[in-house]
Amino acid sequence: QITLKESGPTLVKPTQTLTLTCSFSGFSLSTSGVGVGWIRQPPGKALEWLAVIYWDDDKRYSPSLKSRVTITKDTSRNQVVLTMTNMDPVDTGTYYCAHSRATSGYRKRHFDYWGQGALVTVSS
Amino acid sequence: DIQMTQSPSSLSASVGDRVTITCRASQSISDYLNWYQQKPGKAPKVVIYAASSLQSGVPSRFSGSGSGTDFTLTISSLQPDDFAIYYCQQSFDSPYTFGQGTKLEIK
After folding, report:
1. How many CB atoms lie within 10 A of CB A45?
2. Cα–Cα 20 to 30 A to B94, which of A38, B28, B54, B80?
């Protein structure tokens, strides 16, 4: 059974750095084809894809956030960490991590398991 | 970036109706297209992946079709549990963008 759970601060001040941890079970990030991604959702708005990391340590980022976002994995602890610098009130929202499953080769993917989400508010 | 545009943005329908939601990609993405359902306060849930594959556990009234730039999600006979927001997402190229969502409401 695959589960994921996000953890981190609920409130950050503008200009601060946000660090979110995704702790998961039921799979290993050392298994070929596996990935974990981050997606966020401002209140009342659409989903926004942020970043993904794969079993081979390949990483992809949203170009609009690439200068501010870093994704890393700790395979031994079954964790993926998202770091976002220079936080702004527009970054307020729910941050989700999700398991990325590959079908028909490693490129065709979807998020099949999601965490419950972590609400982050950016305010002074 | 590949832009994903959904239509309509919102839709009112009745239980038992057949409903179709459309997603258009700004360039060809083959069949690298997923559909998610999201209910208030909950994480999204995949219903269709690779354009037409039904996710395990999802009722067969859900179906997906399309290839290239134009895709559809169809619910053959709406049930009360289906009223939610639906998002498409492309997995063809990074960034793996989502559409803006379609809110399916009860008429």
Report:
1. 11
2. B54
